[in-house]
From TrEMBL:
Biological processes annotated in GO: translation
Keyword match Ribosomal protein: yes
One of the Pfam families matching this protein, by short name: Ribosomal_L12
Lineage, uppermost ranks: Eukaryota, Fungi, Dikarya, Ascomycota, Pezizomycotina
Name this polypeptide is given: ClpS-like protein
Length: 102
């Protein structure tokens, strides 16, 4: 008889611990710190500026930068910290391109 009560008590404690772990994991997933940057589109008039900026950011040759921009939408960088990603998005927005953080 005491053994049956002990098993029932142990069984009840294990399911109670599982929701606590799920609650702790959820906020960590929401607080994303690294982002992937994707060049979505750009204005045709600002294409030379966008090519120069991509060349400077990614360290590509002029020809590779032109091909990169012309193949938009395309992934630019992966695993970029939030502050740096926001600066890049703002810079590209200022010259007429659209970039998104994913």
């Amino acid at each position: 008889m005491p053994m049956g009560g002990f098993v029932a008590g142990g069984g009840a404690a294990a399911p109670a611990a599982a929701p606590v772990e799920e609650e702790e994991a959820a906020p960590a997933a929401q607080e994303k710190t690294l982002f992937n940057l994707k060049l979505e589109k750009f204005d045709a008039a600002s294409k030379p500026k966008v090519i120069k900026e991509i060349k400077a950011m990614l360290g590509l040759s002029l020809v590779d930068s032109k091909k990169f921009v012309e193949s938009a939408p395309k992934m630019m960088k992966e695993g970029v910290p939030k502050e740096d990603a926001q600066k890049i998005v703002d810079t590209l927005k200022a010259i007429g391109a659209t970039a998104v953080m994913e």
